[in-house]
TrEMBL record:
Repeat recorded as keyword: no
GO MF: hydrolase activity; metal ion binding
Domain Metallo-beta-lactamase: 12-212
The protein's name: Glyoxylase-like metal-dependent hydrolase (Beta-lactamase superfamily II)
SMART domains xrefs: Lactamase_B
TM regions (residue ranges): none
Organism in which the protein naturally occurs: Terracoccus luteus
Gene3D superfamilies from the UniProt entry: Ribonuclease Z/Hydroxyacylglutathione hydrolase-like
Cofactor: Zn(2+)
Length: 233
């Protein structure tokens, strides 16, 4: 499975490009702030064509470039509970955060609603770009936060770590941490349930590709992540 990861220009949000191989259709996951040029280079280098954009949740740092990436003929997939966040995104974003963003880039923030949005729910299996993607609803960071499960692992990973599947976890779980729950739409209680009922049952052989920071494995997180180790029953 061809997998390319690179950080956005703001907030160090990971954008992922996943395909069965070079010269094929691909999935773009979480196109954040200022990723267009790097994404274009990745697509050209590997001769890839976006078939869909997958969004782990609707925060600005994960979706800001969704409309230019999708254009007029590629759909964006987001959980139904976060669908509202793609309508007039900037009006829903903390003004201080928008001001910080504009100061960093020296330009006014702009937003155009994507034209083709597909709402997904827990348990949905998507068949896109030759890949089967399982949707796991894991609210807590936002109401509609999801993780995307893939049956394969990135090329070059085999033999380095003991993994046989991949989970793109968004801001649900990171290496050594979890997503914050104090933003609008967040819930500590919902996050605890998601960690207990959705994250912990994942096999140790799961490679975790988070929304921020380095990749990890469920085996490692089960042993070392304090938010999982101290999770109440």
């Amino acid at each position: 499975m061809l997998t390319v990861a690179f950080p956005a220009r703001a907030f160090d949000t990971n954008c992922y490009v996943v395909a069965t191989g070079p010269g094929e259709e691909c999935l773009v996951v979480d196109p954040g702030v200022g990723i267009e040029d790097t994404l274009r280079d990745v697509l050209e280098q590997h001769r890839l064509r976006p078939a869909a954009v997958l969004l782990t949740h609707g925060h600005l740092d994960h979706v800001y470039s969704v409309t230019p990436v999708c254009g007029s003929d590629t759909a964006a997939y987001i959980h139904a509970d976060d669908r509202y966040r793609l309508t007039d995104l900037l009006a829903q974003t903390n003004p201080g955060l928008v001001a910080m963003f504009e100061q960093q880039f020296g330009a006014r923030a702009t937003w155009t609603d994507p034209t083709d949005v597909v709402e997904i729910t827990d348990g949905t299996r998507l068949s896109l770009a030759g890949l089967d993607v399982d949707v796991l609803h894991a609210p807590g960071h936002t109401e509609g936060s999801v993780m995307f499960g893939l049956g394969g692992i990135p090329d070059g990973v085999s033999g380095q770590v003991d993994v046989d599947r991949t989970m793109v976890s968004g801001d649900v779980v990171f290496a050594g941490s979890i997503g914050r729950t104090d933003l609008p739409g967040g819930s500590h209680e919902a996050m605890q349930r998601s960690l207990r009922d959705v994250v912990l049952p994942l096999p140790d052989t799961t490679l975790v590709l988070p929304g921020h920071g380095p990749a990890t494995t469920m085996a490692h997180e089960r042993r070392t992540n304090p938010y999982l180790k101290d999770l109440p029953a």
